[in-house]
Amino acid sequence: MELNQPQTVEMIRKDAKIPIEIGAGFYARLQQMLAFQVKDKTEEEIKALQDAINNEKVEADSWHYHYDTLLSLCRALDDKARELNLTVSVPIDQLINQIEGQAN
Question: Which of 25, 56, 69, 93 stands 20 to 30 A from 76 (CA)?
Answer without folding.
Answer: 93
